[in-house]
Write a structure and sequence with these properties.
The protein is an alpha/beta fold. It has nine helices and 24 strands. The protein folds into two domains: 262 residues, FAD/NAD(P)-binding domain (3-Layer(bba) Sandwich), CATH 3.50.50; 159 residues, FAD/NAD(P)-binding domain (3-Layer(bba) Sandwich), CATH 3.50.50. The strands form seven sheets. A six-stranded mixed β-sheet has the order 3-2-1-7-22-21, with helices on one face. The chain has a five-stranded parallel β-sheet with strand order 9-20-10-11-16, covered by helices on one side. Helix 1 runs parallel beside helix 7 and helix 7 runs parallel beside helix 9.
Length: 436
Amino acid sequence: MNNNVCVIGAGSCGITSLRALSQKNIPVDCFEMGSDIGGNWRYNNDNGRSSAYNSLHIDTSKIRMQYSDLPMPDAYPEFPHHSQVLEYFEQYVDHFDLRRYITFRTRVEQITPAEQGGYNVKIQNVDSGEGEERHYRAVLICNGHHWNPNMPDFPGQFDGECVHSHYYREPEPYRGQRVLVVGIGNSGADISSEISRVAAKTFLSMRRRPRIIPRFIMGHPLDQWTTPFSSRLPLSLQKLAYRFLLKMTVGDQRRYGFPDPDHPVLTEHPTVSSDLLNIVAHGGLTTKPNVQRLAGRKVVFTDGSEEEIDTIILATGYKITFPFLDEAYFSVSENDVGLYRKVISPDHPDLFFIGLIQPLGAIMPLAEQQAKWVAELLTGDGALPDRPTMVREIQKEKEEIERRYVRSPRHTIQVDYFPYLRLIERERAASQQRRS
């Protein structure tokens, strides 16, 4: 029986998984479809999975994004450009000598449970088409969740161009056009703000009316207002504090010409933008409600208004997808993955999902702790609770999310940065205790 472990993907979660496994001297093979590391942060990645646009900067501060054992360079700005983030990942991989574990230009085609335990993994060389099957004792899935575009099905037919934001790179192709951006997440806010500077007219359509939060609040990065201490306060007090900070920094969104939020603060993944409200206030961008139907070159909205549109850009999020897993073995419905601590399926305990979370903060340090926990499980230094306990905890976390957040597929994997970090730390301690 092969004692090696398989890691799928050499993005930010894959490389920290390699670091954790190699520290425990666990034999590991990593397969990456692209020619190099970086995943979503490699602009125009030849694995076809990157959604990075040319102007993209991270929306979490660098100290919240960096791994624990290698800080980001001091010379980096507070919110680095995607090229700097990639450069940091390359430094991380080279510093810890992780490339030797990675086979590039290799796609994982299928993962199936093996009779002798573990998994059979079919791989294929992207260039030659040659394939083989290997056996692994465990698999860490690090393929990300921002690569399979969610395409809404609006009634009617649109005769212009319609593209998902996944494929957006630069605003210049839209110069002089009438552009509609659908979706008010971070990508929708960034792209509509950027396009508005070159387009003849830019519209931003949204199903819900979000609260727009700037990257800096009173001179401090947004995510640094949450600390290990403040994150322990009752949620009601955290909401009160954020309402005060936003009132002092932003004020009433309606003063900018932007709709008033239709949900309380901290009940939806935040839309972070320092530009959007000012652009709306200056008349560079017009907000619209949800799309009702398409009619040739016209788009009709739910308030009855209609606009002539040349291009629609759908910033409508992504579907969580694992094309190498048979749906009869592991399925995802409405982005609900049903994992213990967002990492482990109670029915498939040697199949691990790293970074399958949407934090209020950066994924990378959280994925690092997930990977360390998994490494301890694989070496026998830790143990999982029994299946009923895991199922009960999964249901409890699901109910907590439903009570707190606006109902949406994007919130099924939502976590808070520091509380989740503490949760994994406690789980690691409990895991070691079970083994002792």
